[in-house]
Write a structure and sequence with these properties.
Oligomer: single chain
Radius of gyration: 21 Å
Number of domains: 1
Structural class: mainly alpha
Distance between the termini: 49 Å
Largest sheet: none
């Protein structure tokens, strides 16, 4: 005869004590999933390094000039490519990954587990921050080889990186919540990202005052400006740019909370 022993359900205090361990486990899971995907690693790390190497070969020996607002080419492009790498890791990749996981049913199965939703998204955010830090270190290291200066205000870089990662993660989740088909996710993500990157001066300086004003109200240029300040202007914190970036992060979080779905839309 089999004796059934009742299983004791964890109380709230036990659950609260176990949440840090759950968060660490979720971060570890996201990291393992990422590092076991060669294509994700290549696009995330190799692409910005290749871009900064190309720019270094072209502008590495250049002097300061008006085209780069009084900076040399590498002084301008090192923080810009670092910002683009964070945008790709936190916005583009996250929006596509969440769309694919929802389409495959992974999010629906996960939602049925006792894992709190905030732990899942906090793990994603921490993973994106870790990837972004590696990206920024690689880009800054390569830029330094071509004569680009190191940041004069590391605390400003850290704050900008954390706020930018959080804001673009929120926007990535918001976009993923609005995409109905995972196959369309890459196209939707790039359709939004590419125009913003180009009008924000990420790949070439924009000297149009009107265009700069418009781009300054969007999330990418403020992030670029906030990254540029401690790298080249020795200005530390760009609070105006950080404020605009934070506002976009809040807007993205509101859309994500209201519209995010754990299961795919019915056909």
């Amino acid at each position: 005869m089999t004796v059934l022993t009742p299983v004791r359900q964890p109380d709230r205090a036990t659950t609260r004590r176990g949440r840090p361990a759950l968060l660490v486990h979720q971060i570890r899971y996201e990291q393992l999933s990422f590092w076991r995907n060669p294509q994700a690693m290549v696009f995330t790390f190799v692409f910005p390094v290749v871009v900064i190497v190309i720019f270094g070969a072209v502008f590495g020996s250049g002097d300061s000039g008006s085209f780069f607002f009084g900076m040399s080419g590498m002084e301008y492009y090192t923080p810009m490519i670092a910002a683009v790498s964070v945008l790709g890791a936190c916005y583009a990749q996250l929006a596509i990954v969440l769309s694919l996981r929802r389409q495959s049913g992974q999010l629906k199965r996960l939602h049925a587990t006792p894992l709190p939703a905030w732990v899942y998204f906090a793990g994603l955010l921490a993973h994106c921050v870790l990837v972004s830090v590696i990206d920024v270190v690689l880009v800054v290291g390569v830029g330094r080889l071509y004569g680009a200066p190191l940041p004069a205000h590391w605390a400003a870089v850290a704050l900008t990186l954390l706020l930018g990662a959080a804001s673009f993660c929120a926007l990535g989740v918001a976009v993923a919540s609005l995409v109905g088909d995972a196959e369309a996710a890459p196209a939707v993500v790039q359709f939004i990202q590419f125009p913003l990157v180009f009008i924000s001066g990420s790949y070439f300086p924009v000297h149009s005052e009107v265009l700069n004003r418009i781009a300054g109200l969007l999330p990418v240029k403020p992030f670029n400006d906030a990254m540029l300040a401690p790298f080249t202007r020795h200005g530390g914190y760009d609070w105006d740019a950080l404020g605009v970036l934070a506002a976009w992060g809040v807007a993205g979080a509101v859309v994500a909370v209201r519209r995010f779905r754990w299961d795919a839309r019915p056909a």
